[in-house]
Inverse folding.
């Protein structure tokens, strides 16, 4: 890492403390006459549940290796976003903690993007579990019939191995390509969320229900695809071709898939 990690860590803590206000402390009342911006060290230490002496040493670069428990307490005290928390851990020469689950809600700006492309470009959003969270009108018109009912009705991996309509829409080659990608993406998801009950249940169901899943799983591939060309057979519009591009929002662990129509 470039620079002095201890001074970088201290500067990072001082900056975030300076941006906090007494209102950020649970139960505290606003103070009208403060000579310095932000919280005092004692106030921040109280929120984090650590001694002010130790916190002072951290800011001054005299505590070289705070524990993961201390870093977690500080991340909650400020409070930090996942990206800010991960940076805090890296400054302390610690591996960032595993994310427990993708964000449950699609952020408003992304929903606005979907709506803005309603009549031009199909767009879907799925999370790190491969569950489709949102799709715009153009995507619903293309893919809506593919999604089923039940707890995994909007899961891409589940549909890749169980949907009866996929081969009609994608053709044999396209359906086989999706199955390969889906198994690889599920392996990546289980690596990121190894204790996730939903993913483990999905893996168990596919392992027992789908022989095709077992064959693809044995290839031990990890999902790395971000661009592809897709051919679809639409029930009313006939053959269609799209260039698909997948973009990642790491803060939410959401994936945005855009399908740009290919011109003949």
């Amino acid at each position: 890492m470039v620079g002095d990690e201890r001074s970088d860590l201290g500067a990072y803590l001082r900056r975030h403390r300076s941006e906090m206000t007494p209102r950020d402390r649970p139960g505290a009342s606003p103070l009208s006459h403060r000579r310095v911006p932000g919280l005092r060290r004692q106030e921040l230490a109280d929120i984090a549940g650590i001694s002010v002496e130790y916190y002072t040493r951290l800011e001054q670069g005299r505590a070289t290796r705070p524990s993961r428990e201390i870093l977690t307490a500080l991340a909650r005290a400020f409070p930090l976003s996942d990206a800010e928390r991960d940076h805090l851990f890296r400054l302390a020469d610690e591996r960032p903690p595993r994310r427990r689950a993708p964000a449950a809600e699609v952020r408003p700006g992304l929903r606005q993007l979907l709506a803005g492309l309603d009549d031009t470009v199909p767009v879907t959003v799925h999370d790190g579990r491969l569950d489709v969270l949102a799709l715009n009108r153009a995507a619903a018109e293309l893919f809506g019939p593919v999604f089923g009912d039940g707890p995994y009705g909007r899961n891409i991996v589940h549909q890749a191995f169980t949907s009866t309509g996929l081969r009609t829409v994608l053709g044999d080659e396209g359906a086989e390509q999706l199955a390969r990608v889906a198994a690889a993406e599920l392996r990546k998801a289980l690596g990121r969320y190894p204790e996730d009950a939903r993913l483990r249940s999905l893996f168990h169901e596919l392992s027992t229900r789908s022989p095709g899943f077992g064959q693809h799983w044995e290839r031990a591939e990890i999902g790395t695809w971000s661009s592809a060309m897709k051919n679809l057979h639409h029930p009313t519009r006939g053959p269609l071709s799209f260039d698909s591009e997948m973009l990642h929002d790491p803060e939410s662990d959401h994936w945005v898939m855009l399908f740009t129509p290919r011109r003949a």
Observations:
- The CA atoms of residues 123 and 186 lie 21 Å apart.
